[in-house]
Amino acid sequence: MELKYTRTNVYKKADGKELERIYSFAEDYKKFLDSAKTERDAAVTAERMAKEMGYTPFSFSEKLSSGDKRYLINRNKNVFLIKVGSEDVAKDGVRIMVAHVDSPRLDLKPNPLYEDSGLCYLKTHYYGGIKKYQWTTIPLALHGVVMLRGGERVEVCVGEDENDPVFYVTDLLPHLGGEQAAKPMAKAIDAESLNAVVGGLPEIGEDEEEKECVKSAILNLLNKKYGMTEVDLQCSELCFVPAGKARDVGFDRTLITAYGHDDKVCAYPEMRAMFDSADSPHTLISIFADKEEIGSEGTTGMKSRIVQDVIDTIAQSFGANPIEVRLNSKCISADVTAGYDPAYSSVYEKRNSAYVHCGAAVSKYTGSRGKSMTNDAPAEFMGWIRDVFEDNGVIWQTGELGAIDVGGGGTVAKYISNLGIDTVDVGVPVLSMHAPYELISKADVYSLYTACKAFCK
């Protein structure tokens, strides 16, 4: 029996075959990430993958049976994958894994298009917690949907193909930036200045002095390509995200930088673990949630009643009491945590931080200051999850979200536990969280996959 606790570096322990599995899984994850930059993109990708694995659409009026595999797409942004097991759901409950697939970004305002000094712009309203200065001077892609008159939905994705144009938010040159540089970092870039350049070619007509001739030209381009007019932008969900694909980092390619690791680096392993657990006797639910970055509100967030409705439908299929099923259920809230960054060590407490390369990170609680606004997993459930991981060879660690009183943050765990379901956060340590390009270890995303698979088993 080992008396002392010591973190395990996954790469130090991995043999050649294990290293091959880690790198192979990372390649699959990168492909998923590149196709799932927004919650809508993630829903489309998850639905396609679920169909390939034999999942069929879920109905709340259906009576489910053991062996059934179903998927539910809630308003194109929230995904439920359901596999009905052979165990008695009244006694065994359901095993739930939930990650969110929305990420910080720049949403378009309802009336976004304007022209100024020969350039045409789209005005934005940032979504989630960002450092505004990080979103200037980087290539941006436009993703989303526009609803045309009569109910036609038009998909928009510009900036991801290598032949596409990209979009760009300007910043002030250092030669004229003395006053800006003297401001606190949070105020150096004003939110109302995060407007993306989208064009500059004027439309020349009979009246060459026509005002907003660049804007008119852009509207003509949009109308020809998408059939839309300016008023249709008021009925759209369009956002700017960093353009480009996930990339390996380091001479040894041990890490990945990309947009949207938070929290798709947890969504993909939970989904893969479910797909790879066809022989599990447990009833499994994997959830891709929306709106986590802004409080989990709305019809597609984890505060929605639909989560309980899905569980209750499963219970009723077997004549079980829904309350009893929820009380016997277990959940992994798969969300990222702050990886220890030696460049900014003062905001961490080293003994209780998660480290890159050291496996899946278990957070008993998140929140801020005196554990406010958090689920705090009970010791009994922490002990149960520890035994599950260690019995299945999962490399894991524990970690808090930074030092006490420095800041903090939350996950969807509290909304699941509010239903009477034992829940704990298990995720991947991330460096530069909420930046346009975040950094994670390939070893950690693979370790989370093994953790989720052990939980399903």
Short description:
With 457 residues, this protein is α/β, with parallel strands linked by helices.
State the major sheet: 9 strands, mixed
CATH topology of the largest domain: Aminopeptidase
Secondary-structure content class: alpha/beta
Average predicted confidence as pLDDT:
96
Strand content: 15-25%
Secondary structure: number of strands: 23
> Superfamily at the CATH H level of the largest domain?
Zn peptidases
Query: Do you know the CATH architecture of the largest domain?
Result: 3-Layer(aba) Sandwich
Helix content: 25-40%
* Structural shape: globular
The strand line-up of the biggest sheet is 1-2-3-14-4-15-21-17-19
Structurally, how many domains make up the residues?
Answer: 2
Question: Kindly, what is the distance between the CA atoms of the first and last residues, rounded to a whole number of angstroms?
Answer: 25 Å
CATH class of the largest domain: Alpha Beta
Total helices: the number is 13
Task: Flag low-confidence runs.
Answer: none
Radius of gyration equals 23 Å
